[in-house]
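In the design runs reported in the main text, the only information available to the sequence generator was the tokenized backbone. The following block is the verbatim input for one such run; it is reproduced so that readers can re-run the procedure and compare outputs position by position.
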């Protein structure tokens, strides 16, 4: 029994140090979109995304505000070992809108993602 507990604790330690777990800890929290393809956002538009980790993925809450009117979208995300993320946003008419991104850089307060599906837009976020 002690061996099983010991092996289980080693396995949990190894999994918590995986690249996905480390990335998930870095992206946790609220991020504000600063620019798309090097262009700052219109002053009447704001976008933020909140990552809530759960294992090697989690849930998102995305808020896009235009002229003071917020539109909130919910979804899920999954991290991939190659430094990528897939975000599945819930559609209002049912189903999901899936998008894939590659992490260009991530720090404690800055994140850059390049869209790898339906174009190659570069998104820069700040905490």
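Verbatim output:
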């Amino acid at each position: 029994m002690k061996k099983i507990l010991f092996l289980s604790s080693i396995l949990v330690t190894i999994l918590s140090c995986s690249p996905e777990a480390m990335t998930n800890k870095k992206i946790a929290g609220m991020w504000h979109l600063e620019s798309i393809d090097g262009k700052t956002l219109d002053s009447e538009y704001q976008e933020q995304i909140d990552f809530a980790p759960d294992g090697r993925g989690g849930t998102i809450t995305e808020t896009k505000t235009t002229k003071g009117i917020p539109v909130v979208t919910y979804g899920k995300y999954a991290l991939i070992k190659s430094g990528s993320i897939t975000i599945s946003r819930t559609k209002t008419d049912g189903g999901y809108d899936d998008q894939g991104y590659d992490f260009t850089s991530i720090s404690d307060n800055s994140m850059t993602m390049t869209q790898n599906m339906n174009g190659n837009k570069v998104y820069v976020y700040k905490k």
